Each structure stands twice: as structure tokens, then as C-alpha cells.
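Fold it.
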Amino acid sequence: MRIENGTVVSHEPMGPYYRVLTLNLPEVTRTAVPGQFVHVRIAKLHDAVLRRPFSIYKVDGQQLSLLYKAVGRGTVTMQALKAGDSVSIVGPLGNGFPLTEDSGVTPVLIGGGYGVAPLYFLARRMTQRGVLFVGGSKAVDILLADDFRAIGWDVRIATDDGSVGIKGLVTVPLDAWIKAGNGKLNPEFYACGPNGMLKAVGDRAINGNWKAWLSLDRHMGCGVGACLACVQKVRLSGQETLARVCKDGPIFEAREVIWEN
């Protein structure tokens, strides 16, 4: 982990609601791995003390990209960043997804909305190709499908309104895939998205006796484990305890997570 001032290389829209911010970060990119995140100081948001966490979408050489949606004051303010601007970054933070080298395992990625961002970073680093299940509210919320296909992934889509892919939650095509007998392919799940989706994926993995690596999303304060704002109840070595999502996570295996009603 380090603090680095990155220079904005580009800042481009991805459809009507999403943007990709690319920064030159030679130190952060040197050690970043899929599943980690960075903490961003939002320029011109002077009354905001806390940084904002963003999953790493891409690393190309010394350039790091973030895929985000403008949903609050911080991300709305971020939209004003332009090429040449300087941005303070802390990172890379947290742990990453484990990269299996077992040729007998089929990687299965499940993303909700812009939860596909860290999964794309992961997919590019994996030696095996597998299946991506991606879900969103409507067609404009389905991101990177062609990018995954371009690097050899089988892409299955679901939307709440049925505007593209299967109508329903992303677990609908996932369940169909499992029911078709693909459990014999020894799947290993990697998921990023809303908590309800993560729990659903984890439940299916546990029932099938497969592994599922879940990227948890919690409101974070410091991002380095000091403030305890993002604790999650987990089970480690048979004992219930509290983990810090920012430092001990954000990646946890499904059997470790204790979901509260």
C-alpha cells in the first residue's frame, strides 16, 4: 500500500450512465492484483474528509482504470476530472481473488451491474477461460460483455426487464447452467455485486460443495482497517469473529461469511 498522486490519462463515458477513469500510477500498478481496490481523494469536494473506494477495473502497464457510476456527491464530482489533472490515490488495498492454476477447475464469474469491473481484471489474469454471468436492471446496465467475449469467455446475460438476455435475476441463467449438469465441470465461483446476489451465489456454491469467492461491499472510512467502519461477521477456523472488509477482505470464501437478516 502507498499514497501516490496519479495523473489522469483519460476519462471517457461507457454508455449513458457509466464512466472509465484512467490514471498513470506506476507504483500502485506494480503490485495490484484482481479484487483489490484503491481509495480516491475526490478533488474539489473540500468538505469531504473521507476518500472513496473503487475496485480496480484494469491495469495496463503503469495505467490503472476505474469503472464507476455517478450515484452520489463524490462520483458526481469525479465526473469533472480531465486529462492532466492530479488525483491522490491510496492503494492497492485489501486482498485479491485467488488465482487457481488447476486445469480441472472451471472458473465461473458472476457480476451485478458494474460489479463486473474487478471480474474483468480477474478474467484477463486467468490462464483458464470459463463462463461469465452478468446481470443488471436493463440493457444499458450490462457492461463489458463484448470485452469478455473478445478474450474467450462464454457470456450469459440476465436483465430485470428482459431488454437483453434472460428476464430475471442473474441467478436465473446460473441455475439453468447448474441444472444442465455443469456441476461436473468442477466450477469455482467469483462474484462481485449486491449483497443479495453474493449470498445467493454463496448458497449455491455451498450446496454444490464448490468454492465461491465473494467480493463484499461495505461502507468504508479509512480503507486500511483502523476505523472499524466496515466490519463483517465471519467464521474462521470454526469460530465467529469480526473481520474488516477493507483490510481482511474484500474477498471472502462463501463459507466464511455470516449473513445477518
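The longest strand covers residues 2-14.
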